[in-house]
Design brief:
This protein is mainly α. The protein contains 2 helices and no strands.
């Protein structure tokens, strides 16, 4: 009986920890998408994309596509 309770508690804590990690990664990626949209919007404001703006867009894309290892 006690082993079942301990197993259930461990499963619940593990699920909460996993959900928290997933939520943090989701928020990070969402923020990176927002930043990419802002950079693209700024670059397209005057209907011309300069080299500096292109580089900023490329860096934002690389940040978004970067795979995080933990």
């Amino acid at each position: 009986m006690e082993a079942e309770i301990v197993s259930a508690i461990i499963a619940i804590v593990g699920s909460i920890a996993g959900a928290t990690i997933y939520w943090q990664r989701f928020k990070t990626k969402l923020s990176q998408v927002r930043q990419l949209i802002e950079v693209v919007d700024d670059a397209l404001y005057d209907n011309k994309v300069t080299e500096k703006e292109y580089q900023a867009i490329w860096e934002a894309v690389k940040r978004l596509l970067k795979v995080e290892e933990k």
